[in-house]
Design brief:
Distance between the termini: 50 Å
CATH class of one domain: Mainly Beta
Shape: elongated
Radius of gyration: 19 Å
Largest sheet: 8 strands, antiparallel
CATH topology of one domain: N-terminal domain of TfIIb
Length: 250
């Protein structure tokens, strides 16, 4: 089963804009059927299937501060931790999504969101270490990665994309795609590529730092302070525009 994401061009409700700020709403589509319109609140992260095969959302939520933003598992595979629209946590490995099926005092079991028909699962202990893992699926990986995007302008009038409280600038543009890169610059590899209709084509949304504090007022984006992931001395906040960095006074 292959799935896709599409922006909704037919309804005014799919886009909600003021003079400067536009919020993109995305339709979930599987096998040609529309399963609903996704709306994510500020600070929430949405990716992969919203429900398991029984129509139930994951029941367990772990604080994002209790483990790394991503984890290396099983050779070269990387595990990402995201949240669905209800704030419940999902794990992603090789584009397959997992929900928390069972939790004991020492471990938690995560199953493929396809449900009981798929045997893929993994078990981690309370430190986040993988104890057991089975990455064999009986179906194709979902092909939709749904994210809420807010388009704003910085103080110099340049457009930025805000995804899960992280800001991205327009790095490259071709005749068919636009590449957006984390404003942290070359020290962070997070980026995503959309087509001209803002449909996600490729992404790496794993950051090596916490999101910056910011304020959006009348559609204008302004940085506050930055808290380094390592807990070091906060740096002077800045926005990367092309090959230049412009410090913002505190």
């Amino acid at each position: 089963m292959r799935c896709g994401i599409f922006s909704d061009p037919d309804t005014e409700q799919s886009r909600q804009a003021d003079s400067h700020t536009e919020r993109i709403y995305i339709l979930l589509c599987c096998n040609g059927y529309v399963h609903g319109r996704v709306e994510v609140h500020a600070g929430q992260d949405l990716q992969g299937p919203l429900c398991d095969s029984k129509g139930m959302r994951p029941s367990h939520q772990v604080s994002p501060d209790t483990r790394p933003l991503s984890t290396q598992v099983h050779n070269k595979e990387r595990m990402e931790w995201v949240k669905n629209r209800s704030g419940k946590e999902l794990a992603i490995i090789n584009d397959f999504t997992y929900y928390n099926d069972f939790k004991s005092k020492s471990t938690s079991t995560w199953r493929c969101t396809r449900g009981r028909t798929c045997r893929s699962r993994f078990i981690i202990d309370n430190t986040g270490k993988v104890v057991r893992i089975n990455l064999e699926h009986d179906h194709l990986a979902p092909r939709y990665f749904v994210r809420d995007v807010t388009w704003v302008k910085n103080r110099w009038g340049k457009q930025l994309a805000i995804v899960s409280d992280y800001s991205f600038y327009n790095d490259k543009r071709s005749n068919s795609t636009i590449s957006w890169r984390c404003t942290r610059g070359t020290t962070c590899k997070a980026r995503f590529i959309v087509n001209l209709n803002n449909v996600m084509q490729r992404r790496n949304l794993t950051h090596n730092h916490r999101p910056c504090k910011y304020l959006i007022h009348n559609g204008l984006y302004r940085l506050g302070t930055t808290e380094p992931l390592s807990g070091g001395v906060p740096e002077v906040p800045s926005v990367r525009l092309g090959s230049h960095r412009h410090p913002i006074p505190g």
